[in-house]
Each structure stands twice: as C-alpha cells, then as structure tokens.
Automatic annotation (TrEMBL):
<keyword id="KW-0378">Hydrolase</keyword>
<comment type="similarity">
    <text>Belongs to the peptidase S13 family.</text>
</comment>
<dbReference type="InterPro" id="IPR000667">
    <property type="entry name" value="Peptidase_S13"/>
</dbReference>
<dbReference type="GO" id="GO:0004180">
    <property type="term" value="F:carboxypeptidase activity"/>
</dbReference>
<keyword id="KW-0732">Signal</keyword>
<feature type="signal peptide">
    <location>
        <begin position="1"/>
        <end position="21"/>
    </location>
</feature>
<dbReference type="Pfam" id="PF02113">
    <property type="entry name" value="Peptidase_S13"/>
</dbReference>
<keyword id="KW-0645">Protease</keyword>
<protein>
    <submittedName>
        <fullName>D-alanyl-D-alanine carboxypeptidase/D-alanyl-D-alanine-endopeptidase</fullName>
    </submittedName>
</protein>
<dbReference type="InterPro" id="IPR012338">
    <property type="entry name" value="Beta-lactam/transpept-like"/>
</dbReference>
<keyword id="KW-0121">Carboxypeptidase</keyword>
Amino acid sequence: MVVAVLAGATGFALLAGGAQAAPQAYRADQAPPPAAAVLQPADTGGTVGMPGQAGLQAALAPLLQDKALGTLTFAISDGATGKLLLGSGEGSPATPASTTKLATAVAALDLLPPTTRLATRVVAGATPADITLVGGGDPTVTGLPLDQVRIGGAPVDADSAPASLAELARQTAVALKAAGVATVHLAYDTSMYTGPVLHKYHDAMNIAAVVPLMVDEGRIDPRSPDEAPARTFDPAGQAADEFAQLLGAQGVAVDGKAKAGQAQPGAAQLAQVLSPTLPRLVDRMLTTSDNTLAEAVARQVALAAHQPPSFDGAAAAVVQTLTKLGVPMQGVSINDGSGLHLQNAIPPLVLADLLALAASPDHPELRPVLTGLPIGAFSGTLIRRFTPAQGSADGAGVVHAKTGSLSGVNTLAGTVVDADGRLLVFALMTRTPAGADQARAAMDRIVARLTACGCG
C-alpha cells in the first residue's frame, strides 16, 4: 500500500492505494491551510525513545543465554549520546579479531585529509634506459580491466575504482617513446615501509606480505571468489613482473628480469596512478574486511603520526591518535591494523565508543566508518548473515556491522535503528568452543532483536 500526502496550491491529496480525494476549496485571498505533520523529527538527543536497561534486559535475556555464545561480553549504547544502556563485561578486554579495523579506520580518518590518495609511480633512473617502479602503499592497484573488478561482490563505480597498472604502463610507454627509448631496465622500490614484511600470523591467504608495492592485494589469482585466496610471497616482484608484461604490450621491452632497488632522490616522474580517496579505501577495508588493505591504511596513520611505517609503528600511531580523540584506552592492546594478531585486546565498550564517535555530529570526517560497515544479508562479510534460516531476518538491511573471526573467537560491532527510531551502537565479543556458524547465528539473533525493540 502506498500512502502519500501532497500539500500545495492544488489542495488535493493522494490516499492509500493512489485514490484522489476531492480538492479542498479556499479563496485566492486566503492563505492555504497549514499541512499536517507527516513525520515527527528524529530524537537525536535527550531521553525520548531511549531504551531502558530493564526493557533491553527483558527483550534480550533469553537470547543471551544461548550456549553457543560461550563466554560473551557486550556493550549496547545510545548512538546519539554514547551512553551505555546495557552491558556485561563491557569494560573487560577481549580479542577483537577484525573489529580492530574500526580502530584503524577511526585513526586514519581523523589524522589524514579526506582527499588523501596513494600514488604508484614510475620514475627515471641513472640513464634514459633505466626506470624504477615505486610503491606508494596502495595494495588495491589492479592488473584487471576495471569492468572485471569486484569489491564485496559488486562492480566498482568511478569513485571506488582502483588504480590501473595497465594505465601506469601506458603512461610510461608514452613518456619513453617520446624520449626515443624502446628498451629499458626495470627496478622496483619498496623502501617506503620499514620492519618485518610478514605478519606474525601470516598464512599467505588471509594476508599478503606487507610491502608498499603490490597488485590486487598480492592475490595469485585476482579473479578467485575465495574469501581467503592464495597470496604470493613476493607481492612486489609479482607487481613488477606484471608491469613489465604490460609495458611490452605497449611496445616497450624490458631487458632481463626486474630487480629490487631504490629510486634516486629527486628522480623525474614518468607516470603515476592514484588510489581512490582515503574514505573510499576505508569503506572497502571495512566492507570486505581486507587485512592487507588494513595494514596499508595503518601504515599511512604511522607516517602521518611520524611513527615508523611498520607493524609496531602503525599500532603505536593508532593508539596515540585514539587517545587524543578521548577514546578510553584502558585495557586496550593493539599490535596490528587488521586484527589478525592474537594478542590484540579491546573492551566491548571501547568498540561501541568508536562507533558512537563516528556517529557524532562533531566528527563528520569519521562518517565512512559507518557507511563502510557491511549490511546484514546484503553486502560484504554480512551478505550470508541475518537470514530467515538463522532466525535473524529482522536484521536484514537494517544491521550495519563489522565482523571479526579467529579460532574460537567471534565478534560483531555496529549499528541498528530500533523500533522507536533510535540509533543504537553495539559490540558483542565471544570466546566459545561452539562452531563459528552457531556462534554467529546466536549473535545475529541478539542484534536482530534490537531492531524490533521498543524498549523504552
């Protein structure tokens, strides 16, 4: 049924089903009658419509007892004020898994300008026949035609399209041919980062070696639909080899195999391609839970905070930035940007606070934290969750949340709008011997119940 109200000089209304009512007569010298209020303004502060502790407890109590949850700690807060509404162990540090990316995202968006783009460049070498491919920290550079690129299963639009390695080769070939060069020696520069390149829990599937030069996040097969595709152990070498092939297709031969090396200071630039803006990178990182991209974003935080662009430096920079934002950091331990590290610890209340901060009108620069969250049953890592089969379909299209999963650990942190139109933020953190599917379904039922809750 469609109900619409049309107020204006014509003076008539459309009723349910589209039937037209008789026009209301008024004289031309009279002002038209005031239109009735159609929508009440949303309550974005105060206590009107705010769920109460007793109401939430009554609504959620049976679901919180599900044995599949194992040890559950959680926080549910008001999105407008950040006030804790209901929790259990909300201040106790727990393993956040990929919800760590919320901390990385908030730090990056706070510290870096929204216009930030990461550049992958080609510069001239010691002779006209020497060129260097320079990594600028963008792991999303793609060797695929852009019409074949998918993010979270969806095609990319112009704003989210990654930088093209083929375009970089084309620009390079144009510059070389203009200089009369047809054959080159190719070097590649990964000096932007410091420290170990392998994550402590590197498995060549969930994360690639963390270097500032790579293509398609180091995937061996970028078209693979696998959630954890095989990754090369040498992403920079793979990118250089692929670039050499693309140069050849443009009529410029590469003599021998590309070698690691550093660009000369002040070397002339021959070509450049740019990543999407930082907010788009954060959006992609959260939607797809891309660990390699998360580590790249964390290193940009480190560089902006004047910390070493390494695992340790990035973690220190994130903690430093969140502390300056006023996030309560007691009990927080961050060791990476992605959440793969088993020694990461974040209390549920801190995750809820990060989400409330992102929703605050005082921090519009943090809004991509919310817009990048996967949507229940529709996108990213939630595309197969909040379904009727799991008993949580009320959350489909309504729940926006970041997932996290490690062995025996499942986390979910995000936002819902309850039945009274109130924005709630939540973080659920479990450690359980139950199967991951069982634990996730139990968590989803809790969050789905929030959407139907008029618990004031």
